[in-house]
Structures are given as C-alpha cells and as structure tokens.
Structure prediction request, 295 residues.
Amino acid sequence: MTLVLLLLTGTILFFSLLKIMAPLTKLREAAVSVSEGNYDIQVPAEGDTELAQVGKSFNQMSSKVKEQIECLSTVNHTQRQLMGSLAHELKTPMTSILGYADTLLTVRLQRQQQERALSYISSECRRLSRLSVKMLELTGLYETGESRFAPTENSVKAFLEDSRQLNLCRLKEKNICLELQCEPADLKKNFDKDLMLSLVNNFIDNAVKASADNSKLILAATAGKLMVQDFGKGIPAEDLDKVTEAFYMVDKSRSRANGSVGLGLALCKKIADIHGFQMKIESEIGKGTCVFIEW
Prediction:
C-alpha cells in the first residue's frame, strides 16, 4: 500500500512539474528561434502569473524587433550597416536569456532564485523592446528629415522645468538633485519641443548613469548654450569623438547593466544637426562630463 502511494505521489509530482516547466520550455525554444532570425515566434502569455508577464514582455520584444527589421530592410547603405550593428547588439542579451531559461529548466532553484532569473529575462526583453523603439526613432529621423521638423518659439525656463518633471522618477532612483539654471529668466528659443525633450532626456539619462547616489546634476541654458553637467566618472579623451556613434558605449558592461543600448547620443547629434545646432562634449576623468549644444 505504501509503495502504491509513493508511486502515485511521484507520478502526480512528475506531471505537475511537466506542466510548470512547459512555459519555460516554450520560452527557451522561442528564444532560440529569435536568435536564428525568426521574429514571428510568440509564446503563451495568458494569465497574470510571473511567467505570463515574462511571456508578454518576450512577445512585445519579438514584435518590435520584427517591425524594426522590416523598416530597416528598405533603407540606404548606411542604415543597413546600422541593422548589422543591431543584430550584433541583440546577440549578448539573447544569449543571457537562453542561459537563464536553461538554468530554470535544468537546475532546482529556490523560489527567490527563480524570481531573480525570471526578473532578469523580463528586464532583458524590455531592454530589447526599448532598443527597437530607439532604432525606429533614429532611422525615422534619417528617412523623413525636415518633414517631421516643426520648430516653434518656446519659453526656455518652462522647457527646462518640463524636462525635470519628465525625469523625476529616474532622478529619485539615485536620489539625485537636478539644479535648473536659465539666464535670462525670460529666454525664448525656436526649436521642435518634442525632439529637444528627447535630446535633453538622453543627456540627463546618461548623466544619471555616470553619477553616484545622492549627487547633483545641472541643467542650464543661456542665450548661446543648453547643457547638462554631471560630476561623475568622466569619459576618457580617446572616446570623446566616438560616443556619438550609434551603439558605441564607453563602458559596455556598466552601460548594459543600466539598460543602455548605445543609441542615445547618436540620436541627440541628429536632433541637434537638423536644428542647425552644434553638439559638443567636454569631460575629465574623475570630475565629470558636460554635454551641451550651441544654439
């Protein structure tokens, strides 16, 4: 009787584990398929479980990457080179997703370790989704040029405050103070507000990544300059001319850990160029970086 109960219990556990592991098996198979270039693959994402949320993030990532790849298939030679860089950029996170999926399938982990692995898979899928969005934005500017360009007169002081509000959550993550300076206070400038917000948001995001907790950033504007100053790690002199290239990252490990995809400053340079502004970077190791445009 005891043997029968043990066999029955073992059978129930075996099939229960198969049912639990099935979504992970499908996720692993889908990750392999995406890494081989099949962006039509989708995984089950029904329900509100953690695995369902990971599935939704994965499907969103796959769809956005497919959309971006289709967009890039018709562009000129320069953008085809950019697509090659994207494919290279996707390789490392996809390898990580595969590794964590394999671990979940083959290793008996504690609940906390499982959640950490699932969280990593989800965050990497979201990062790839952000990459696709940024790529589409960058190539969209290259393709349409001035047709999307709509400059209007703006109060610079109000613009700086809007920039701070958009970045409050990001700043609170590291308890960083963003100091605003506008001289003169009634300064007005002609620019496309949406594009310039994107530019300043990228400046601030990079400054936050380079800064220590409980530090300070400066967002300042004068009649001739708009700048973001941080007091963080600084950029090596040999990298200053390269940081505006798409996908170039000074510290790749730190950038990926912070969710960076290496497209921000390339986008900023394009935005500055179509306004007729000059983007410049000054930096010193250990003292910080000032990224600014002359307008």
